[in-house]
Write a structure and sequence with these properties.
2 copies of one chain form a homodimer.
Chain A (H helix, E strand, L loop, with lengths): L7 H6 E7 L2 E6 L6 E6 L12 H22 L3 E6 L9 E6 L21 H14 L6
Antiparallel strand pairs in A: 1-2, 2-3, 3-5, 4-5
């Protein structure tokens, strides 16, 4: 079995929150939006439909759970869920809480302006909150 | 049970291909991209995670099947799958075949330029092909 390694761009742009359903759950380091990224830990995947039926079921249930929880946590009026991968080919699913006054509303977030990184303190507090509130595998 | 009605913007922008898994399957009338839209026929839904577990399973399996089939039919190097709904609140899922030379590549398609409608002949031929090739409910 091939060893999974996270794409260098995803590794550079995110922090690991934890694991669930055979995936790494990442926090995008962009304070403009509460933005999770779910990455199935299988090398070579590019498309959501390439997951076998069992993994697809697990990953989509994780998406449902995370989208529900992130909307509750943030009280966001809208969630955006997407698997694009035009620039970073490794399969990854975006789960983003949107607000009517955020930097890209009502457009999509990708390619809009520059990321605004969290401060170290903000990021550590947010990661701790997410690890506590989201339904992750035990560390 | 409330009567489902398709959002007027979706009705204006698309043609009905057929039905599967409790959804309407629509063709976006934009010849720049092979672009399907799946709309669960339940009034009042805004988020993917609002589907109950049974409907969520059916809808996500339909997404998997349609994404696989559309990529095969179009030989597209990349698929984009997304539930956004920032402008049109009725829950709808985009399944889009992307090419490296399409009008928005490598960005997302939403909000880029103006749709280029199919001619009536093109549209009828494409709808017939999709009805034949996709795994839809019997009409």
């Amino acid at each position: 079995m091939a060893v999974f390694s996270l794409h260098t761009q995803l590794a550079a742009d995110t922090s690991l929150i934890g694991r669930l359903s055979g995936c790494q759950l990442l926090l995008m380091n962009d304070a403009r939006y509460p933005w999770l990224i779910l990455v199935p830990e299988q090398d070579g995947l590019r498309e959501l439909h390439e997951l076998n039926d069992k993994a697809f079921h697990a990953v989509t249930l994780a998406i449902k759970s995370l989208s529900t929880s992130l909307q509750t946590l943030t009280a966001a009026p809208k969630m955006n869920v997407a698997a694009l991968g035009n620039l970073v080919p490794q399969l990854h699913i975006h789960i983003i809480a949107r607000r009517h006054d955020d930097a890209a509303w009502p457009g999509p977030v990708w390619g809009v302006g520059a990321a605004e990184p969290y401060s170290d303190d903000e990021r550590l507090v947010l990661l701790a909150t997410l690890r506590e509130q989201l339904d992750l595998d035990a560390a």
